[in-house]
Write a structure and sequence with these properties.
Elements: E1 5-10, H1 14-25, E2 29-34, H2 37-47, E3 51-55, H3 63-73, E4 79-83, H4 88-96, E5 101-104, H5 109-128, E6 131-134, E7 137-140, E8 145-148, E9 154-155, H6 158-170
């Protein structure tokens, strides 16, 4: 059986929250549903989810405030905001406080699932491939640096790092 992605969903609209929870669970997600930001923060601490899907407008603690509190202690967990607020200023605020994605209501469950998988894949890649050894070379993907033995590191461009990473990743397929 494949690993189920543990997702914390904070949504104050009970009907929407239940529909999302059931839809995600039928697609092999483990969903922790919370109806406000306070409960979501407690569940985040006790359940260790892999990704957060937060409604922006919730009682007790809104999604932006919740994200700020979580970002203060965890700067790597992926966060997707769900909201009816679609003004540019709202979107900018969501990204500037550490959100990784922003989905405007109404949205399709398929779009949410694709965004969740993309963020999870990106996070796993960043965690598992920070430093790669290739013969006598060391490649640090996070810092985009290549080093030969004990020589000085060479700073690579984003494109060079991306290309090198994909070449390394596919080398075993040939």
């Amino acid at each position: 059986m494949a690993h189920k992605i543990k997702l914390l969903l904070a949504e104050d609209e009970a009907a929407l929250g239940q529909i999302l929870k059931e839809s995600l669970e039928t697609r092999d997600f483990e969903v922790i549903l919370c109806e406000n930001g306070d409960k979501a923060f407690d569940k985040y601490k006790s359940e260790a989810p892999e990704i957060l899907v937060l409604d922006v407008m919730m009682p007790k603690k809104d999604g932006f405030t919740l994200a700020k509190e979580i970002r203060a202690i965890d700067d790597t967990i992926p966060i997707i905001f769900l909201t009816a607020k679609s003004q540019t200023a709202d979107v900018v605020e969501g990204f500037s406080i550490g959100g990784n994605d922003y989905l405007k209501k109404p949205f399709s469950i398929e779009e949410l699932i694709v965004r969740v998988h993309n963020l999870i894949d990106r996070t796993k890649t960043q965690k598992t491939t920070e430093i790669i050894t290739i013969g006598e070379f060391t490649f640090d993907l996070a810092k985009q640096q290549l080093k030969f033995k004990d020589d000085e590191s060479i700073q690579l461009t984003h494109r060079e790092s991306h290309l090198l990473f994909h070449l390394i990743k596919t080398k075993t397929k040939f």
